Amino acid sequence: MSSYYFSNSTTITSNTKTNYIAITEPQQPTPLQKSIANGKELYTELCIQCHMANGKGNGTTFPPLDGSDWLKKKRTESIHAVKYGQKGEIVVNGKKFNNMMPSPGLSNEEIADVMNYVMNSWSNKTKKMVTAKEVAAIKP
Fold first, then answer.
1. Does 57 score more than 60 pLDDT?
2. What pairs with residue 3 in β-bridges?
3. Global pTM?
């Protein structure tokens, strides 16, 4: 629905010319966009120290999230790692990483949010949204 704002009125020989500027309603963010925004805040607070602002990790101890084949191919394991922490060797983009990531102690909704942020940031683009219900279904 459009609203109109009266900008000016000019009288031209007995005819009135009125100019209007169309103002469109702001678009409401989608559920995925809201989740990504919330996830970005969580990532900045909890994950950025190890995985860096660019999602590339440090190349030796902490794996990259940007372009991570592990995220793409191992969705359940990725969610599990955020929910319960990660220890033991994993291979990301052909490189071995064997460090411990503690559980950040997030709710299922917060885990879904941070996963949606990570899986839709940098070069990552995932169509399927992670939901709190999906996170809740993942057990230790």
1. yes
2. 23
3. 0.81
